[in-house]
Known about the structure:
Shape: globular
CATH class of the largest domain: Mainly Alpha
Amino acid sequence: METKKHENKIYNATESCIFRKTKELYGGLSNMASGFPLKVNGVHILTSEAIYQACRFPHLIDVQEKIIKEKSPMSAKMVGKPFRSNSRADWDDTRIKIMRWCLRVKLAQNFIEFGKLLESTFDKPIVEDSSKDDFWGAIRDKQDENILRGTNALGRLLMELRQFYNDKRYTYEIFVVEPLNILDFKLFGKYIDTIDERESFISTIKKSTRYFEVENLKTWTPKEKGYPKVENEQTIVSEPEIKQENKEQEKITKKKTTKSKSTKKNCNLKEDYQIPLPF
């Protein structure tokens, strides 16, 4: 099968978000990066590289199993290398679609961390800095190392994903990834199901949200325990309410002071206060 010719691009490294090694600033954008696990059809997968490589062999279940079992993404890639001549027949026509799907799953199942990483690139070009692959990445010019040339397919898919993230981040759509409409889109002999991470995300948010409850207002003071803080902090108790409580406290203790109206402040926090979901 004749490989389609893809458009090459030219990038300036000083104006782009470059990734090559996984431990670098933008290394998490790489399919080789750990820390972004996936789950497809109930199967735990360590990296997006592993599921991408497995999708190359839907008709070879044993090869898929070997790829998924590997601990490192590079070894997962290498396990399938001897079988590449027996890749799915439409691989050259579907690999971009499959990679796009893999990245969507990576975002849906690692929304907070991967989303933050995408945000950190702002609107700059994203480029995979490769030594020899000018299809998925781009190669540095021998005369000027700040110039990279290549199709940069992975970088362009990540820029597309970043736009999707920016447009859909406040909707549930970002957590639902439909299976591809291609022949034999399977894992371990079973068709890949819809990825739906809505409930999982809500559960994660609830676990990470801090709840505040003060049982005894008379013994709690900001000097001793400090005011609780949350992201996007809202005013829970107004200043007049605090002053009124201070006056009542002074009456009870029968203490007077000339330095200030109050030496202690009590907060009556709303029960079960939590950060509202962004949708």
